[in-house]
Amino acid sequence: MCFRFWLKGLCAAAILLVVPALLVGATEQYRMSPPTSAAYTLNTPNEASTLLQEMKTKAIQVRNLADQLETFNRDGELMPWRADAGVLTRAKAQVNAMDETLYRLRAMRSEALPWQQRAIDRVAPKVIELTDYVQDAIQNLNNNHLTVHILDNSYTQDADYMYQRANTIAHSIGQFEKYATARTEIQQLSPKLGMKVAS
CA-to-CA distance for 185 and 199, rounded, in angstroms? Predict the structure, then answer.
């Protein structure tokens, strides 16, 4: 009987030693993997807001560059064409980045908030037009770089259209952002005032 009691105690001790080892192995085997890049894109509204903000910032930069081109044409001085080329190169880089941002916004449009969807729809054609005007200005400068400030009215128009489209994009996104901020404030205040927010 003593032997049987001793054997039961030995078995119980063995189980106490083995079970923690199995649990450790189990947590090692089923440990969660680090989040992938896709995991960071699950919050579409936040990402869409960030991309729209980037779009607005780039549009403001293009607007400022277009203003420089218009200044070159207004001053009446014979500016070296390389000055225009430098400005257009920077504008082209910004517009390319805007095209890329628009592509990403369109890809996530269906998961975005209603105001973000409207913002994407509103600015998309303007971004395409802006890209065309920058390309036209570059082509005009390449074809007539010696006389572009003297004889080429279409080059002046390209710069003006660039300014207008970039300004429209920045202004539109800014208006939608103001709407979103106001809506958030209303949603936060409504319960305190005992009012319901219309969907």
Answer: 14
**Beta-carbon contacts of residue 124 (< 8 Å; ≥ 6 apart):** 102, 106
- Give this prediction's pTM: 0.72
Domain tally, the chain: 1
Q: Are 87 and 69 in contact (CB under 8 A)?
A: yes
Whether the per-residue pLDDT at 123 is higher than 70: the answer is: yes
Residue 144 token pair? 């007539």
Nearest to 102 by CA among 132, 128, 72, 70: 128
Asked if residue 150 belongs to a domain, the reply is yes
Q: How far is CA 20 from the centre of its chain?
A: 49
Domain presence at residue 78: yes
Residues 6+ apart with CB under 8 A from 87: 65, 68, 69, 72
Q: Is there a domain that residue 16 lies in? A: no
Please provide the average confidence, as pLDDT, over all residues in the chain. Answer: 78
160-179 per-position pLDDT tens digit: 999 999 999 999 999 999 99
Domain boundaries, position 156: 43-193
